[in-house]
C-alpha cells in the first residue's frame, strides 16, 4: 500500500441545501482507511459535535462498540491540520494567489507531509545533525546497499506523492545520498569522491536527465543486475479531487 489513495475509500456522502436561516450548501465527505476514518464537511462546530454524537450512538447501539473519548477530534480545516494516514489535511487559504483573477485555491483540500515524519525518517541517516555511514550495512554488497537506499526512498516518495509539499523530500534525498556514499566508501575503504567517480551516472526519466548513481553486476549469459539511485522525480500526483 504505497499511496493514500490505496488506503482510502472516499465518497461524497451528501449535499444538503440549508433552509432560509442557513448559509448555503452543507457538503459532507467520508474517508475510510480502516481502522482510521475521517469526515469532512462545511458547517459549524455545533453541527460537527452533533455528527460526532450520532456516530457514537450508532456504534454503541448497532455495533456494540464504544467511541474513544480522546481520539475523535474536531478540527477547523482552515486554521488547523488533521492527522490522517500519515498526512496532515487542511484547506488552503491564499487571498494573494489569483491566477486568472480568481482565488482558485481557497477552500481546496491540502495534503502535507508532517514535519515530524521528515525528522524521524532523517534520523536514521544522521548523527549530530550530519549524514553518517551506517556501520551495520557494511557487510552488504554495493548492489544490495544501493538497492536498499533506493527502496527506502522510493517508498516514501510513492506514499506521499499527493502531498502539496512533496518537494520537502529533496532534503531527505540529499541526506540519504550522503549516507549511502559514505557507507559505500567505508565498505570499500576509499574516499567519497572515489565512490562518485566509480558509480556516478545520469539517469533519463521521461526524457529528462537526473544525476545519480548506479551499480552494475555483470552476469555470464544473463542480463546484468543494475541498482540505481537518484532516478525518482518529485512529481506530485493529484488524486484528491
Question: Describe it for me?
Answer:
The protein is of the alpha+beta class and 241 residues long. Among the domains are: 78-112, no CATH class; 115-229, no CATH class. It has six helices and eleven strands. It has helices spanning 4-7, 45-62, 115-123, 142-159, 169-188, 192-199; strands at residues 9-17, 25-33, 36-41, 82-84, 87-91, 109-112, 126-127, 130-131, 200-205, 208-219, 222-229. Strands 1-2-3 form a three-stranded antiparallel beta sheet. Strands 4-5-6 form a three-stranded antiparallel beta sheet, with no helix packed on it. A three-stranded antiparallel beta sheet has the order 9-10-11. Strand 9 and strand 10 (208-219) form a beta hairpin. It starts with a helix and ends in a 12-residue tail after the last strand. 16% of the residues are buried.
Q: What's the helix and strand layout?
A:
Layout: H1 4-7, E1 9-17, E2 25-33, E3 36-41, H2 45-62, E4 82-84, E5 87-91, E6 109-112, H3 115-123, E7 126-127, E8 130-131, H4 142-159, H5 169-188, H6 192-199, E9 200-205, E10 208-219, E11 222-229
Antiparallel strand pairs: 1-2, 2-3, 4-5, 5-6, 7-8, 9-10, 10-11
Amino acid at each position: 500500500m504505497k499511496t493514500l489513495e490505496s488506503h482510502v475509500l472516499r465518497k461524497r456522502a451528501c449535499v444538503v441545501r440549508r433552509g432560509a436561516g442557513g448559509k448555503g450548501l452543507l457538503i459532507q465527505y467520508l474517508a475510510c482507511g480502516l481502522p482510521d476514518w475521517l469526515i469532512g464537511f462545511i458547517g459549524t462546530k455545533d453541527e460537527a459535535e452533533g455528527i460526532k454524537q450520532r456516530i457514537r450512538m450508532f456504534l454503541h447501539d448497532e455495533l456494540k462498540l464504544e467511541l474513544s473519548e480522546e481520539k475523535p477530534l474536531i478540527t477547523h480545516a482552515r486554521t488547523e491540520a488533521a492527522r490522517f494516514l500519515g498526512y496532515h489535511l487542511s484547506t488552503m487559504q491564499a487571498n494573494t494567489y489569483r491566477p486568472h483573477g480568481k482565488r482558485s485555491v481557497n477552500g481546496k483540500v491540502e495534503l502535507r507531509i508532517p514535519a515530524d515524519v521528515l525528522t524521524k525518517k532523517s534520523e536514521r541517516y544522521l548523527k549530530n545533525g550530519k549524514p553518517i555511514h551506517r556501520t551495520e550495512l557494511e557487510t552488504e554488497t554495493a548492489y544490495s546497499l544501493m538497492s536498499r537506499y533506493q527502496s527506502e526512498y522510493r517508498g516514501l516518495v510513492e506514499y506521499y506523492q499527493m502531498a502539496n509539499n512533496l518537494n520537502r523530500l529533496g532534503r531527505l534525498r540529499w541526506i540519504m545520498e550522503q549516507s549511502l556514499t559514505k557507507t559505500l566508501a567505508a565498505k570499500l575503504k576509499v574516499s567519497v569522491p572515489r565512490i562518485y567517480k566509480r558509480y556516478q551516472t545520469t539517469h533519463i526519466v521521461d526524457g529528462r536527465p537526473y544525476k545519480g548513481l548506479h551499480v552494475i553486476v555483470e552476469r555470464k549469459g544473463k542480463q546484468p543486475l543494475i541498482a540505481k539511485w537518484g532516478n525518482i522525480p518529485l512529481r506530485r500526483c493529484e488524486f484528491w479531487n
